[in-house]
Amino acid sequence: MKYLVRDKIFAIGDDYWIEDESGRQAFLVDGKALRLRDTLELKAPDGQVLVTLREKLLSLRDAMTIERDERPLATVRRKRLSLLRNHYRVTLVDGTELDVSGRILDREFAVEYDGELLAHISRRWLRVRDTYAVDVVRDDADASLMIAVAVCVIRMAERGGE
């Protein structure tokens, strides 16, 4: 399933709908203003908070956390010693690790688990400016988590000036 995301949604305090490939509202991104750290909530159309994205404070390396039901779900960090491409590691609380690599700032990258593609992020085939697609390839992959990972990685890459 493909989801269309606009780059402009990342401003804190802004709200924006993410649409599915049929044009239906699938997720609401709610930017929380006046918080000590960057905070975004990804909500279902009915308003239920699916995941919360937070900038991790006092971290040696740039990191963001993804929470579900106010409990940690995953931590996203830039991978050390990645010479060829932008590379991030997503560590889920159960110890599972996802790899994110590609041209992050160009919005051309993939999320993989153990070498298997879970989601592909691309703006290549879109004509709408400042929009990219998150194509969740596997049916059993958590779409809200894949979108959250894409948002975190792009946000961290932009702050890091990659």
From TrEMBL:
<dbReference type="InterPro" id="IPR038595">
    <property type="entry name" value="LOR_sf"/>
</dbReference>
<comment type="similarity">
    <text>Belongs to the LOR family.</text>
</comment>
<dbReference type="InterPro" id="IPR025659">
    <property type="entry name" value="Tubby-like_C"/>
</dbReference>
<protein>
    <submittedName>
        <fullName>LURP-one-related/scramblase family protein</fullName>
    </submittedName>
</protein>
<dbReference type="InterPro" id="IPR007612">
    <property type="entry name" value="LOR"/>
</dbReference>
<dbReference type="Pfam" id="PF04525">
    <property type="entry name" value="LOR"/>
</dbReference>
